[in-house]
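I am still getting used to backbone structure tokens and would like to learn alongside you. Label the sequence line and the structure token line clearly, so we can match residues to local backbone shapes. Would you write everything just below, so we can both look at the same thing?
***
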Amino acid sequence: MSLKASLEKITDIEMYWDSNLTNYSTFRLQSHGDLLVVKSEEALAAVVKALNHHQRAWRMIGWGANQVLLPKETDLLIQLDFKWDSTQFDEVRSSYHLPASLGLNHLTSHASKFGLKGWEALTGIPASLGGAIYMNAGTALGEIGALVRKVRIMNKLGEIREIEINASSFSYRKNHFVNPGDIIISATLVHLGTDEAIPAKIKNYLEYRRNSQPLATKNCGCVFKNYSRTRQAGRLLDLTGLKGLAVGALRVSHRHANFMENIGGAGSQDFHSLTELVNLQMRLHWGVEFELEVKAV
């Protein structure tokens, strides 16, 4: 039985073969390939087992907010779209059990409504909960790792385990508990109390991001990790005069130098060429080289 035939027997999935994947990343880089949208944990376990049986390589795509897709993806991409109990957000709770596919915008909306402390750190991040946990996403206000207490993970055999989060579970833009082939499927989050100042803090930080970052353009968020607290990527790129530097249809943003904007029809090769050119300038001017924050195959 072929892989396609095996997958067709699984309920709660949507299959897109040899499809245009350009709109499945916020970068909107030109891409084609195969995609599965999985709508339940049971379906995900069946999908993973089928892919392993047929030895088909795959990877998670999430919201595609920090991913660089290839012109022709040979890996099968998986996106989760789990149902969730939205009544959890009808009131303040001590903890929340949420699916990995939930957008962070739902969390900041709830935080703004009830003044949840700590959740303002997620303001304006265009990502799913699973993707944010995987890379310990954050802003100048904090990181998501400080809010996570448990993470449920499915391994490449379709088995589920629960991780208790501790002080060593996360570091800067990185987790230390997801193994190759693992999929984050849900998590338990807490808050740090309530504060009536939180709604204004979220509103003000959103306004700050609109004014300082190119949120309306086709981009993948910050491209590079900060080299250190005193050598922030955007600041060094700006001081080097790299705003507006372009390769093909991809350019360093005029608004924030750690963002790259797709100004029409860019592909992954443009991305790799531009990041290599930027790092060449960093080595020449500052003697440093930046590590990518965005995931690029």
